[in-house]
């Protein structure tokens, strides 16, 4: 029995050694001496799988060594043991033999499996070798094509550069000529559009003025003063600008309550307008006085909005009054050879509903009334001064300015407390025909409307403010009645409206300046002034006529 067991073990040992030899042998070329693989990607690495097989074989060997050790020990024990234990040893040896047989069987199956896997790997390697060869061929072809394409590209690039160097100046010059031509055409079309637009605007304005003249509407100009230094330095919201000028003849204002409104007038002068620009629009109206028309120009608005500045102006930058008189004298001088002009001037103020002659020696001593005469309303006994030059008029205005009533209020450092009316009467006689024309120019600086609570007026200034507001309210009633076409117009409700009756009736050309402040603090008063001016613009006075007397009459 021992010999048989040893023979079985020896047989198993040889098989294991044979298996180990197979596993450790390197993979050589297949029979027949196949040529080596061409250069290309290497075959996949199967070393991991082979290492696994080695590990399994090592395990089998270890088990074999353990069984052999047990066998040797059993054999030694068997020799030393008694016959009583022989049967147990034989039984143990029998079990070991069975175990070895199982191990041999398992090893045989694993060997077959490994051999199958090795065969599969060889087939895969052969396939990869074939693919690698194909890829190598393809790669070589692509490399050749790449070299050819690179050569062609370099040649083409050189040709393009050479051609560009040759043609670029011509291309640039041609493009520049085309662009210049297109730009000139474009700018020309813009200029044509601009000219046509300006023509349309002028024509529209001419037609509108013609309609206004035929209707005799009161023309209204709006002027907004610039913000003062105090207003510019203030950081509160009420000092912020609240007016915009979106287009010609248009003004937009918003108040502190969020209300916003748009108005349109015959002219709108923004905060940067100059005295020259303002008078340029007034000039045609002023010069019509020499043709025998009655003309009235007055400034309306809240106190401190620049009415006196617009009408009188400082000595260094005169306003409408001085410029109008300068132009009248200049035109009169030009036509002296054919027409003899006699110019007379008067200056009065309406103060607390009383007329004051500002050229009289005893200003304020007499009471004056308004009467209706053959050439319109007049004030009996009012000082009338014949003048031959602008210098004489300036002396009279200086005298009137000293006599005018002013006071300091919270709204204006030098607030006018009366309505000032500078009247210029021109009687023109044609030296050849004897025809006589009578023109009348009223230049009026109205006192500013004001809220008593805001202006801080007290005592005498409070009384003045109340009378100013009363006379301006009466003027509003007259404007409303004329605008609604009522038969009765309440001219007699105040001294101011009696004096303006001629100008607010037929046969007169009337222009109103509405002066406004640009800051939010004065927006409520601005709204009132602009709404009043809007109503005034709708008043139709009828077409003005010349005041001409034929020779011999």
Task: Walk me through this protein's architecture.
It contains twelve helices and 17 strands. The protein is α+β, with helices and mostly antiparallel strands. The strands form four sheets. Strands 1, 5, 6, 7, 8, 11, 14, 15, 16 and 17 form a ten-stranded mixed sheet that branches. Strands 2-3-4 form a three-stranded antiparallel sheet, with helices on one face. About 2% of the residues have low confidence.
Which short descriptors sum up this protein?
553 residues; alpha+beta
**Helix fraction?**
40-55%
Question: Could you give a short account of the major beta sheet?
Answer: 10 strands, mixed
SS strand fraction: 15-25%
What is the averaged pLDDT score?
81
Give the low-pLDDT segments.
407-415
Instruction: Tell me the number of helical segments per DSSP (H or I, 4 or more residues long).
Output: 12
Q: Between the first and last Cα atoms, what is the distance in angstroms?
A: 179 Å
Number of strands: 17
Radius of gyration: 59 Å
User: What class, by secondary structure content?
Assistant: alpha+beta
**So what's the overall shape?**
elongated
List the helices and strands and how they pair.
Layout (H helix, E strand, L loop, with lengths): L1 H23 L22 H34 L5 H130 L3 E6 L4 H5 L9 E2 L5 E5 L5 E5 L2 E3 L5 H13 L6 E8 L5 H5 L8 H15 L4 E13 L2 E4 L13 E3 L2 E3 L6 E3 L2 H14 L2 E2 L7 E2 L2 E12 L5 E10 L6 H4 L3 H25 L11 H5 L9 E8 L6 H15 L10 E2 L4
Parallel strand pairs: 1-5, 1-16, 6-15, 6-16
Antiparallel strand pairs: 2-3, 3-4, 7-8, 7-11, 7-14, 9-10, 12-13, 14-15, 15-17
